[in-house]
Amino acid sequence: MDQPDSIVEAAERQLRQGEPLTAYNTLQPALERWPGHLRLRQLQGLALARAGDVARANAILAALAAEGHEDGETLGLLGRTHKDLALRGNGALRDSHLGAAFTIYQRAYRAARGRGEHAAAEYTGINAAAMAALRGDLPGARALAAEVHAAGVAGAEGYWREATLAEAALILGDEPQARARYGRAVTLAGRNYGDIGTTRRQARLLEAHLPRVGEPASAALTIPPVVAFSGHMIDAPGRAQPRFAREDEARVRAAVVDRMANLAPAAAYGSAACGADLLFLEAARELGCETHVVLPFPAEAFRRTSVDHAGADWVERFERALAAADSVTVASDHAARGSTATFEYANLILTGMALLRARLLDTSIRALAVHASDGSALGGGTASILATWRQRGLEVDVIEPGAATPAAGVGATHERDAAGIRHEIRAMLFADAVGYSKFTEDQIPLYITEFLGGVAALAGRARQPFEHVETSGDGLYMVFADPLSAGEYALELSRLATSTDWAGRGLPAGFNVRVALHCGPVHCGLNPLTGSPVYTGPHTSRAARIEPITPPGQVYASSAFAAVAAASGAAFDLSYVGRMPLAKGYGSLGLYHVRRDR
Fold it and tell me: Do strands 226-231 and 422-434 pair parallel, antiparallel, or not at all (unpaired)?
């Protein structure tokens, strides 16, 4: 990619694919060669905005506008960043950004109308009207909405036209028309539930600031639920106490098909073992809904443990289900012999992914299970995930596979092995001091006393401090019992780094930290060499690979951390920023930007 046009094309493709960090990395070297290129700078701002670094995006786009770039794209993006900053702020800061967003959208709207750019005028005009409504200027909002509505009625039919006209009707106080148009928009959207979710969040935001009578118009923007599922495997030959016998398959399949047809879910999340899992996946695929598969370890090994015993037909069904899935997530690179932590971890990821997707779509979540009420509670099994779902308050629908024979409960196994090593789920934090390699000899003692001393003080104030910590030069490695403790500490650590006057303490003014989070099963014990605790394993390496690609001053987490945090009830603002290549060529990983819950 030697010319800016090819780089623009690549970055736009990466943004369409939902990979803003990859797009940002594509743009950076190009901007060093062509620092004044308008489209490269616009895309840089858009990539940062979608990655959650709205303040930097706002600064880049404001600089473009100050240089005289009054095109609809620049002003529309700049207005969006002010809107996002307003919705994150309070008081005077919120009012300031709302005012800026309104002014920019209105200016862009008038300019687009003057140039005869209908689509740009429709987009910026309705946003200007919405900003006026959020500011409490109802007459101004309705004047703009009336203009947009009058111009849009003659436009070509499509989802965004109907959504825009519905929003205009909502602002104008014509709730029956708003409901009708939102309903038509849903029909036109088909299975593009992301578009519906975006429109519904905007409608609900406006409804909170507009006079309203009767049923809210946003109720017409219906999105089916997300479904999480789990269930027993087909009994292995010779099983002493039958649980899901082969002869029960037809009856269970009919029950699964009936439940799934009634829900008609937007997406289904589960594993792919023979028996209940594959029945759920097949029913979801027949309905045309998304299927997302979570495996505890790679597919070949999983097939040997959880499919092969049922025979060749189930193996073929397993292969078809994975090939048809919209995503297949492998929770761990390997199985750990004698431990259920790997399975429990996969169940948490499955649950969290479903919860995050429901939150993103602004819809409900339902849980379905095929479970024999035999009293068993094997760690990582169906009873275990049912307990997690009920703890999270999910509505659970249980299908009995057959007449169950009572059996003694079997608990989760976390026994120590011969070497006293445990295999348990932990949250991990890696942090790196940016610019450490350029410190002078005289600044190193200040780094120890001022920065590491501040980190120690944070631990003293934390509700749940780390279980273990290691430092090495510019690096920190911390282990926490759960994602909530790790996430809270990470955000406090980032706040310490970004809010301290380091120059006043003798360190470089630009000193900052990168903070990365991951969660997974690790081996816990004592290091025979040092006698100190050790927490290690492949998941430790995953955590370490995220930190070098995290922007300074930000907290990024693996998609696994985000899922386990959601499944555990930890309340963070988790924004997906796409898949990023990991440091040192270790593949790629889905990442989330972590902030405090708004």
Answer: unpaired
Cα 60 from Cα 82, distance rounded (Å): 12
Backbone angles phi, psi at 329, to 5 degrees: -105, 125
Cα separation, 481 vs 322, in Å, equals 33
For residue range 483-495, list pLDDT tens digits in order.
999 999 999 999 9
Q: Which CATH number fits domain 422-596: 3.30.70.1230, 3.60.110.10, 1.20.120.530, 3.40.50.2000?
A: 3.30.70.1230
Can you name the CATH fold of 4-220?
A: 1.25.40
**Which residues in 463-499 are b (16+ Cβ under 10 Å) and which e?**
eeebeeeeeeebebbbbbebbbbbbbbbbbbbeebee
For the chain, residues classed under CATH 3.40.50.450 are: 226-399
pTM as predicted: 0.83
What is the rounded distance in angstroms from the CA atom of residue 219 to the CA atom of residue 363? 11
What does the pLDDT look like over 23-48, one tens digit per residue? Answer: 887 888 899 899 999 999 999 998 88
Contacts of 254 (CB under 8 A, 6+ apart): none
The one-letter amino acid code at 487 reads G
Task: Select the CATH number that applies to the domain covering 226-399 from these four: 3.10.20.30, 3.40.50.450, 3.40.50.2300, 3.40.630.10.
Answer: 3.40.50.450
Question: Whats the size of the chain, residue-wise?
Answer: 598
**Distance of alpha carbon 28 from alpha carbon 16, whole angstroms:** 18
- Residue 541: the pLDDT is 85
- Dihedral angle of Cα 239, 242, 243, 247, to the nearest 10 degrees: 110
